[in-house]
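Give me a protein, keeping tokens residue-aligned:
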Amino acid sequence: MNYKFKTKPYAHQITALERSWNKEVFAYFMEMGTGKSKVLIDNIAMLYDKGKIDGALIIAPKGVYQTWSDIEIPTHLPKHIEMKKVLWKASFMKDNKIVSKEVEPLFESSHDLHILIMNVESMSTKHGVAFAEKFLSCHKTLMAIDESTTIKNPDAIRTKSIVNLGRSAKYRRILTGSPVTKSPLDLYKQCEFLDPCLLDYSSYYAFRTRYAVLKTANFGGRSIQLVVGYRNLDELSKKLELFSYRVLKEDCLDLPDYVYTKRIIQLSSEQKKIYESMKQIALAAMDGKVMTTATALVQLMRLHQITCGHFTADDGSIKEIKNERLDALIDILREVENKAVIWAHYRYDIHAIIKAVEKEFGKDSYVTYYGDTPQSERQNNIKLLQDPNSSVKFLIGTPQTGGYGITLTEANTMIYYSNGYDLEKRTQSEARINRHGQVRKMTYVDIIAEGTVDEKIVKALRKKIDIASQVMGEELKEWI
């Protein structure tokens, strides 16, 4: 069709659109870094230009959904499209009634493209579901689930809500880098959202019987079915090919060798309160004084720790603060197709990451490389990550310890859970996957708390500025 792209597409993105743009249902199984968000936005714009839709409902995890509003749509949606865009807030609804006037244009009939972006967690609430239902009832809509493995659990409230809502959408899309995070059974609910008939099974249990090897076990007098293996996976793959497009970075010859991306998170209400209090204390301490870089960095570190979900109390103990950072990390790891390296600046963060990764992916899924990792284990941990046949998928460490000299080329995704201020450590740590022997395209991800010193730190490091030696105390004061 005669469509003018706002941003130039890669060859694989054009292929994705050629296969999908006018289909009622489609799955973009595109590895992180291949630009599936752009593909969806262009798909929405194409359908809108043809008069087939006037609404788009995008549902994404909490750590991602604001990025759609702030970055992805402004970057890729063509300028000729007039739109009314709303980012969901729980305050829009009260007692099952819409109480916010700012969202009224979203439900009006007009020639504009109406875009509603909601976090997947809202689909577990009555207010979130009611708001989405009203939107769908007002428009011819494309409904898309970003990181669709968030609806893999057949018993979750949000999964049931999203599958039900999908029946009211004219077009449906799912997007994920890795559709199978733990088992092929993850696919069932994702595909049911698209169309219950796609996989030829009317229930999750019938699907499980076909593709899983089951064993009967007795616990406490109860007989239950355990999954001990999988079968007929070639048959399942052929079914998926009919309504999906699979893209790996290594297949995209025109992609750059490496890309930088970021995952924007919000401070929790508790974090905001503590952050603001600490900021005022820091500014009061610096008031009227000539600020040395060393002193300012100490104040910066205290604020940075809060963005990571912890702070050091007066008695020297570390206190945890409710935050989104760990959830954002796990969401990213679910999207990773191959292996990944996770760096964190603080030892406290390393311990939290280990606990979360072990809970989500299992004890055999990771190795560590930081101060507490015994010297006797470090070389073997590298060997396990570098072994393509090992169960180890992640290396968790600090750039201070693991950022120098080692080769981690079996991984092609690197995630900075938190950053330090030393440019050399950042540069050296990035090079662990970008070495001789790396045959895949690489992705570097920074997790950033919006509106905090976090943004300043990452921006400086990406511009190759060594914060510790090149940024003066007065400038750091401005950052705070």
